[in-house]
Structure formats: C-alpha cells, structure tokens
Design a protein that fits this description.
This protein is an alpha/beta fold. The protein has 2 domains: 166 residues, P-loop containing nucleotide triphosphate hydrolases (Rossmann fold, 3-Layer(aba) Sandwich); 92 residues. It contains 12 helices and 9 strands. The strands form 3 sheets. It has a 5-stranded parallel β-sheet, sandwiched between helices. A two-stranded antiparallel ribbon has the order 3-4. A two-stranded antiparallel ribbon has the order 6-7.
C-alpha cells in the first residue's frame, strides 16, 4: 500500500493488521459512500475491522447484531405501546402520555441516522436475515431516511454513516443486495500473517513458543471432521494460557499431550477429535 494517504483514510489500528487490498476497498467504499460487505469464515477479523475503523477515524461505533427473527422496523425504531398504556393507566409517570414521541426509541440504524456526528455502523451477520429484510434495509440505507408512522415524521440521517456489513456465508445473499455493496472476502490468515498478528498482541513473546504454538494451531485446524475450527481469537487465548503456565516458558508445547485444548475447541466432538488426533500423532 502506498505511504501517501488522504486525510480521513483508514490506515489500520493498534491491534488490527491491515493488508493493502483490504485498506483500498475500505477507503474506496468510504469515498463512494457505499456499504462494504465482508465475507469470510468466523475469526477472520470481519467484525474487528469495524472496531478498527472507528478507533482509527475516532468515530463512534454502533453495532447491529442481526437475528433470524428480526424485523427491519426494529432496527429503525420501536414504539413502546406497553409503557404508554401503563403510564396512562397508573398516572405516575413524568411523561406526557398524549405525546407519542416520548415513547419512541431509536433502533440501531435509527441511532446511526440521528447521531450528532458521523458514525461507523456495523451490521453483523446479515446472512441470518431473510431476503426481504436485506433488500428493504438497503433501500433505507440508500435513501438515508425512514418514516415513523405513529408520529407522521420522516427521520433523515444527519450524517451518512460508514456501513460495514458482515456475512459468514452460511446462505446466499440476494443479487440486488450484492449489487448495491462493495465486496471483500477476508481469507483466514496464513502463518506468516498470523505471526504478525501474534506479535502485535504479544510483543515480548518467547520466539520458540510463538513458532510452536502457531505450527500446532494450523495442524489442529486441519484435523478431519472438525465442525468449528479454532480462529484467531482462540489462538490468542491459547498463547495467553501457555504463557501463563511455567511449564511452557521455554517454548516447548507438547510433552505428554497438547495442553489447554479446551481453549481452542469449544464443541465436545471437536475436542474429542483433537485429543485423539494428538494421541495418534504422539504414538
């Protein structure tokens, strides 16, 4: 990546290793004011990229965690009819029950639109939502406004947010959705890139421990039949566990068994497969 960046360009963050291709698509997306769709397996840093952009550009971060049952209106605003009914029934609230606006609460997209400064809006795991949700959401993001029916008011964005949308690629997204986003696939880091990431998190790490941990980590990821392969955060936590144990201060990992497998594997079947594979390797 060129060393000449424009003012306001994203150039990485303290603990986020940024390659040139990703930096370019982030900055192009910001300049074109287009949502950036990130795909990749869990643990490749998709979510953390939004945190890094917010940190680097000193912007607030708003996170919308998409659920399969979520309706678009929930992300825009909610009208709290139950509280208004209780206030009118018991009469002990300081709110004016005749003023419906007092009972309107902004959802995550609504918060991003009404923020007094430009924000980064992370829409996490969009592939959990149905196609109608995806397409209707992008209509709102294109128009930069939505209507609150209950008070007959249109809410327009004070500042256009920076949109980062992630997908674990569990199901296909619609063509109209894909056509309105820029796209980048974040591949799982190779060992060389992973070493850079580890060095950022553990600047004083024992050289031998780092090499052995990364080597074993990639071998464990390739065990046949693993359902949830350990990701970067599991490796970081594993190294943290190894570093805290005096038995591994010298950098050696395997003595009788691979230690702390439960840090890397969170599913019972995966744990068993990893444990059995390690035993066969030692044999």
């Amino acid at each position: 990546m060129s060393n000449t960046q424009s003012s306001g360009d994203f150039v990485g963050a303290n603990k986020y290793i940024l390659d040139s291709e990703l930096a370019q698509i982030v900055n192009v997306s910001m300049k074109l004011e287009m949502p950036l769709l990130l795909k990749g397996e869990p643990g490749t840093g998709k979510t953390m990229l939004a945190h890094a952009i917010a940190e680097n550009l000193k912007m607030p971060l708003i996170v919308l965690n998409v659920k399969s049952s979520m309706k678009l209106i929930e992300t825009l605003y909610q009208y709290d009819t139950l509280t208004r009914l209780n206030d009118s029934r018991f009469g002990d609230s300081k709110r004016d029950v005749s003023n419906i606006e007092d009972y309107i609460k902004m959802g995550k997209i609504g918060q991003a639109f009404t923020a007094d400064q430009k924000v980064v809006l992370l829409i996490d795991e969009i592939d959990k939502a149905d196609t109608d949700f995806q397409d209707d959401m992008l209509d709102v993001l294109d128009q930069m406004q939505f209507d609150i029916i209950e008070i007959d008011r249109t809410i327009g964005a004070k500042h256009r947010p920076i949109f980062i949308i992630t997908s674990n690629a569990k199901k296909d997204l619609s063509d109209p959705f894909l056509g309105r986003c820029n796209f980048h696939h974040i591949a799982f880091p190779d060992p060389k890139m992973m070493r850079k990431i580890i060095n950022v998190h553990f600047p004083d790490i024992n050289e031998k421990l780092a090499e052995n941990a990364i080597d074993h980590f990639y071998k464990l990821r390739e065990i046949e039949g693993i359902e949830k392969r350990p990701a970067t955060r599991e490796l970081i936590n594993w190294i943290r566990a190894l570093s805290s144990d005096p038995d591994f201060k010298g950098g050696e990992i395997i003595k009788k068994e691979v230690p702390f497998l439960g840090v890397l594997f969170k599913k019972s079947n995966d744990f068993s497969r990893a444990s059995n594979s390690a035993k066969r390797t030692r044999a």
